[in-house]
Amino acid sequence: MLRPSIYAENLWDEFFDDAFFSPLRTAAYASNNSAAEMMRTDVKEHDSDYEITMNLPGIAKENVKAELKDGYLTIAATSDSHNDQKDENGRYIRRERYSGSFSRSFYVGEDVKQEDIKARFENGTLILTVPKAVQQPAVEENHYIAIE
């Protein structure tokens, strides 16, 4: 039943998810629709750090970049896919290509250094460990008044 939610991220995605439109979907539409599924992120807080887990299905490790600049951690990923189908004579019946790039940024603080962030990539999941900014207790300075 077609009942768009007021809080939906994209009304048209819900509209075209109706069973009536399913024969009209192509692999290209499915690839574009899955762009919304890319880079789903969970952030867990631990005592001394944050663990950022980001889903990057179908993305190769070499197509993922992480950069720390001005206190912002930016993760960027690119994806290229080709779907070529030929008949028995080698002529194309269908040829589809999809190329896209995605990025997410998180403010981690000015005090975090690049060498403090640990990253690993396992089975299409990027796991980053970002240390928490350590609150340094403010040292009270004594301001003495000169006595003459």
Topology, element by element:
Blueprint: H1 11-16, H2 27-33, E1 40-45, E2 49-55, E3 64-69, E4 72-86, E5 92-107, E6 118-122, E7 125-131
Antiparallel strand pairs: 1-2, 2-7, 3-4, 4-5, 6-7
Summarize the structure.
It is built from 2 helices and 7 strands. With 148 residues, it is mainly β. It is rod-shaped and about 105 Å long.
What keywords describe this structure?
single chain, 148 residues, mainly beta, 3-stranded antiparallel β-sheet, 2 helices, rod-shaped
Overview of this structure, please?
There is one protein chain. The chain has 148 residues and is mainly beta. It is built from two helices and seven strands, in the order ααβββββββ. A four-stranded antiparallel sheet has the order 1-2-7-6, with no helix packed on it. A three-stranded antiparallel sheet has the order 3-4-5, with helices on one face.
End-to-end span in angstroms?
88 Å
Number of helices: 2
Secondary-structure element sequence? Answer: HHEEEEEEE
Largest sheet: 4 strands, antiparallel
Structural class: mainly beta
Query: Taking Cα atoms only, what radius of gyration do you get, to the nearest Å?
Result: 24 Å
How would you describe the shape? rod-shaped
- How much strand content do the residues show? 35-45%
Helix coverage percent: under 10%
